[in-house]
Structures are given as C-alpha cells and as structure tokens.
Amino acid sequence: MKIYADNAATTKMSRRAIDAMLPYMEDCFGNPSSLYTIGQQANEALTDARERIAACLGCAAREITFTSGGSEADNQAIRSAAATGALRGKKHIISTAFEHHAVLHTLEQLKKEGYEVELLDVHSNGLVTAEQVAAAIRPDTCLVTVMYANNEIGTVQPIAEIGAVCRARGVTFHTDAVQAAGHLPIHVAEQNIDMLSLSAHKFHGPKGCGALYVRRGIPLRSLIEGGAQERGKRAGTENVPAIMGMAAALEDACAHLNETMPRVCALRDRLIAGISKIPHCALNGDAQQRLPGNVSFCFEGIEGESLLLLLDDRGISASSGSACTSGSLDPSHVLLAIGRVHDVAHGSLRLTIDESNTEEEIDYLISAVEEVVTYLRGMSPIWRDLQNGKRQYIL
Length: 395
Ligand SMILES: *Cc1c(COP(=O)(O)O)cnc(C)c1O
Description:
The chain is α/β, with parallel strands linked by helices. The chain is built from 13 helices and 12 strands. The radius of gyration is 22 Å and the shape is globular. Pyridoxal-5'-phosphate is lined by residues 69-71, 74, 100, 102, 147, 151, 176, 178-179, 199, 201-202, 210.
C-alpha cells in the first residue's frame, strides 16, 4: 500500500486546480499588464481569481495581494506592519515561540534592526490564549502575529478572541493561516483579522503561489520593487496559471468543508486512538483544538529519522519535527515550545492525512507505526535502560 501522509508539507494538486491552470499556459498566456486581447483576458482572469479568493475569506477583492507563497506573505505582512509601527514610534512586536520559520526568522532579523520582539510561551497543550496576548500588549506594540494552526502539532489557536483583543487595543493582528486555509472555516471580518497569509500548495493548489489579505485602511508596503503590479504592493508579472489554480483549489476546498471536515476528523481520531495504544507515547497538542488531518506523536526510546525511513519502506510518506528536514540535529522548536524534553522530542512523528484517505489506510498506518516502533525499540539502548529502570519514563 502507498500512503501519502505528509499533507502539512505539501498536497497533491487536484484535477480541478490543474484544469484551471492549463488555459493560462496555453492560449491565454498573455501578460496581464498588456493592453491587447490575450493580455486583457489574463487580467480578467486575475480579477476573477481575486474575487473568488476574497469570497472564501470574507473580505473584498482589493484586500487580496498575490504572492509567491506563504513565506513571502508572512515576510511582507510582518515587515510592512513593523515599518508602519516604527513611523509612529512603535517597535514592540508580539508573537509566539512555535511559529513557522517564515515568521520566526523574519522576527529575528527585525530584532537585529532594533525592534523588540516578545515571543509568548505556548501551553503544554499547544495553545496560546487571548489573555496572554492582552497581558503582553503595550502602548508601543505595533503588531501581534499568531499562527492560525500550527504546522507540526496541528493545534488551532483562538484566533477570533486574539483578534478581538488586538482590535480593542488598536494593534494590527496578522495570522499565518497557511495550515488553516482550505481546512478550517475562515472569515477575516468576523474574526477581527487585519492581515492573513495563505499558500496554495497546502490545499491542493500549485507550489510557489500564495496570497496576503490586508484589511482596508492598514498600510501595506511592498517587499519587491519593480513594476506596478498588484496596485504597487508586489512587483513582478503575476503567476496567472498558478493564481487560477489557487482560486480553483481554495473554492473547491471551502465549498466542501462541511462534508470533508467531519470525515477527516473521524479518520484522524481513529488514527490517534490506534497509535495511542502503543505504550509510552503521547499525542502532541490538544486532542480537540487541532486541524482535521493532523496527528503528531512523541515516542520514548525512538529516533524520528529511523522511524521515517522504515515507514517509507512500507510505502508511507510521513514527517518528524521540521528541523530534521534542514539536516539539523536540533529537535523541533515547536516540540520544545510545548515542553517536550530533547530525548522525547527526537522521537516524534507527524502524520497529516486528507479527505482522500480511507479507514483501511488508517488501519494500515496504525499497524505499520506499531510494528516499526516495536522494532526500533528492540534495538534501542535508551529503551533498554528505560525497561530495566536505569532511566525514568517521561511519557
Ligand atoms: C508551509 C508553511 C509556510 C510556508 O509556505 P510556502 O508557500 O511553502 O512558502 C508558512 N507557514 C506555515 C504554517 C506553513 O505550514
């Protein structure tokens, strides 16, 4: 059996998204800034895509800027809000310890440029609260940026409450919604969101394409200088095919949320229940407040990387902490942020499923994980020490 269980890393493009892209690579290949017919056709397509994406988010089309993906949208939102704040003498930024690196590394850079960055602690259940945000806001706070849903442990933050706190205090609120868009309902107006980042390849659209929502009245500065595309907020000829694919994929995902969410949640809960039977393991993050497709565990006496290789042998594509992908031996900053100690954080496994998975596949995943964990523990000196009492179990 072949099972792709790494949808948080990227998703397979849907047929609908591919079909929406093809005309703009074939006959309608014109530059949307050109005045002749095929250019104007491309331009009309962009207008249409912008309106459809805005409708999915509950905002106006003019509040959407197309970007090259989630990372660029995060960088632009944060840098823009920081620069606007600095003009008003406000250089304090609030975020959390478990953001994506697109946010954390941008904030680290801003720190070097003289901003004060405060990272809120994340509770052991993988959640931050609106009260924490309220307590951290100061008169010189220019930006609060808190991710909608975490990419490793899947926990979903109380975004509307955090948005309400920020709105009441007059602080710009950005959320990295890359994991949430297309997977959870989003309504930027109702949730008091000022800026929101999304990325097409996380909801069955193409890679290298994303969008940034910025509420009307909030200034947006461009990150990339050049032509006047995107109302001067993002230079560069628009990736028309990818944008059409993104609009089709988001519309498709949002139109079916009512049926896919409960189905994927049920598969997720079956997977969590099955894996939980393995001794000395623990679910990472709250069991309820989590993305429909996210299952994340830590196992004692296991190294995440060998787990992945053995699962790959069984046809399963999975992931451990994101740090491993960068070739680094540091355990994931997300798992450390929720209080997992180094040894345990190294034995992590993330399975991210979607609406195409079946119960049969879930059961195959459970038995494969059980088999591989048992096998690896059989060879692990740490596991031997745990068993004969030389070392204490943590989980
Ligand atoms: C994938 C991801 C990003 C980066 O998006 P790209 O389009 O790959 O640049 C940012 N934030 C989160 C939470 C993500 O999961």
